[in-house]
Amino acid sequence: MEIIIASGNRGKISEYKNILEPLGFEVFSQKEKNADVEAEETADTFEGNAVLKAQAVYDIVHCCVLSDDSGLEVEALNNEPGLYSARYKGLKTEEERRNAILQGLEGKENRNARFVCCICFMDENGEPHLFKGIWKGVIAEKAEGTNGFGYDPIFISEDADGHTTASLPISFKETYSHRAKAVRMLTEYLKNR
């Protein structure tokens, strides 16, 4: 069975290929299937945006599609950046977005945060199936580490013994992250369908 990944992100496509191909699926990027469309993320939830992305590609390929939407929610910042994690405050670089979070938390005691990932698997009939992973932690006082990307240098997960995600091996994130949790639920579902 073929699964099309609704993403242009090479790293994400490669990650999904590594997970799904051993389960017997043929995995393709949306570009490989001439479905190079970018859905407008207009929903007000991660689930909604994941479905919008999958639906846009499904409307072209009419076979199984997988998409995801994810982001960081910081309690003391009214759960910002949330849905806007990749384009927080219109800032261009990951470093600028990290600094905006650190500045926003200056003088605040509550540094609780969580990463959220929602995967949408749209089956051959266009029926969406959702899988959500949550990774709790806190925001560090300063950025630390070079592994990972995005907010990894300022996120200390509850299972990281005080270290930022970016200061730990990539294998740590692949085991404990929000995406890893959602992917485990997805693979369980795919094995049993």
Number of H/I helices:
5
Remind me, CATH topology?
Answer: Maf protein
> For the record, what CATH class applies?
Alpha Beta
Q: What is the H-and-E element order?
A: EHEHEEHEEEHH
Query: How many strand units?
Result: 7
Largest sheet: 7 strands, mixed
Helix content: 25-40%
The backbone outline, from C-alpha atoms, is globular
Summarize the structure.
The protein contains five helices and seven strands; from the N terminus they run βαβαββαβββαα. The protein is α/β, with parallel strands linked by helices.
Question: Which features does this protein show?
Answer:
single chain, 193 residues, alpha/beta, Maf protein, seven-stranded mixed beta sheet, 5 helices, 31% helix
Can you walk me through this structure?
- The model has no long low-confidence stretch (mean pLDDT 94).
- By secondary structure, this protein is of the alpha/beta class.
- Strands 1, 2, 3, 4, 5, 6 and 7 form a seven-stranded mixed β-sheet that branches.
- The chain has one domain (2-192): Maf protein (Alpha-Beta Complex), CATH 3.90.950.10.
- Helix 4 (170-176) packs across helix 5 (178-192).
- A hairpin with a 5-residue loop joins strand 3 and strand 4.
- It is globular, with a radius of gyration of 17 Å.
- The protein contains five helices and seven strands, in the order E-H-E-H-E-E-H-E-E-E-H-H.
- The protein has helices at 10-20, 46-61, 94-104, 170-176, 178-192, and strands spanning 2-5, 26-29, 65-74, 80-81, 112-122, 128-139, 155-157.
